[in-house]
Amino acid sequence: MISRDGDVAGVDPAGGGAGGPLLAGRSVALVHEWFGATGGSENVFLAIQEVLPDAKGFVLWRDRDARRGLDLQESWLARTPLRRSKALALPLMPLTWRTLSSERFDVVISSSHAFAHTVKFRSAPDARYLSYIHSPARYLWSPDFDGRGSNGVLTVPRRVLQGADVRLSRHVHSYAANSREVQARIQRFWQRDARIIHPPVDVDHFADAPAAQRRQDRDYLLGVGRWIPYKKFDLMIEIADAAGMPLVIAGSGPEEEALRRQAARVGVPVTFERQPSRDRLRELYWGARCLLFPTHEDFGIIPVEAMACGTPVLGLRRGGVLETVVDGETGFLVDSDDPRAYAAMLRHVDGLDRDRVHAHAARFSTAVFRANVASWVADETA
């Protein structure tokens, strides 16, 4: 069971408990949308799979650069050209999740950010359905967040798909959400309750840096993520310029050229680190004075990775950072897009206790996630 402070008691994080392995003797299916090069949602699926190692995995398709060695059964969509276009495949996804397999399962757990939560096996009418939600599909329900759904000509198709999304998910017995932000969307869009289980972050890897990395001067600001508009890397450059501090931008994406042009016009050095390895990213976190995160995310794994390195977060007071960053203790939150407001807060960053910042990140570890998932599954399948 989950205690008030978020700790888990009575459930083995590896999936077992006092009565033996979790769901012993029952057939289990794990379902994920599409499996690409490992990202946040894929990491959630893999961590759930660690809790239930005997479960059978299903995906719409897996990309060629996806992690090797996983035993995942692809849907019939994988054998069509539609696997190369998520947008074109979208209208067929609800049908695909209803024609996935003729196998029978006692428990079905989906990892969903589009339509995976609508999965239903016709051969298992009495199955128990649980769904972990990264977000109700943004391009359907929150087009202001995702430009793929903001085109006016998509208004009618979007409404049709919204209706299907609600109608085809009524059989789900229990939802889990990755944050309060997503929990609120599930209630608003689907009129369903959800338990909050924060996604797993590999805090051990980022905290366990070589001694030389721990002794860095922390003399630059850092931005990490995909270089796309809503991540606001352009604002990060403005913040660094207003603060008179060097900036390192780590990641990749379609905005690279525009960001490089902007960086050439400001009065501080801006360094671009394209697709750094995890070890290199850890080194960058440890060398930064603080992480800039002036964007609205559902949860936000990057701030937790930074905090695991003792690096405070300077972020926008919206979304997931309200749950991960303790304002005034592990970072500072700002109610503005004015770069001067962020720059003004930088003078307070050095007064934070970096050991306290590091310790706070442990609440979001993979071990805590596995324990919380095991507790959720045990409660909902008892």
TrEMBL record:
Classification via Pfam families: Glyco_transf_4, Glycos_transf_1
This protein's UniProt keywords: Glycosyltransferase, Transferase
Organism this protein belongs to: Micromonospora halotolerans
InterPro entries recorded: Glyco_trans_1 (IPR001296), Glyco_trans_4-like_N (IPR028098), Glycosyltransferase_grp1 (IPR050194)
EC class of the enzyme, as a word: transferase
GO MF term (any one): glycosyltransferase activity
Protein name, as recorded: Glycosyltransferase
This enzyme's EC code(s): 2.4.-.-
Residue span(s) of domain Glycosyltransferase subfamily 4-like N-terminal: 70-204
Keyword Lipid metabolism: no
Gene3D superfamilies cross-referenced by the UniProt entry: Glycogen Phosphorylase B
Glycosyl transferase family domain ranges (all copies): 213-347
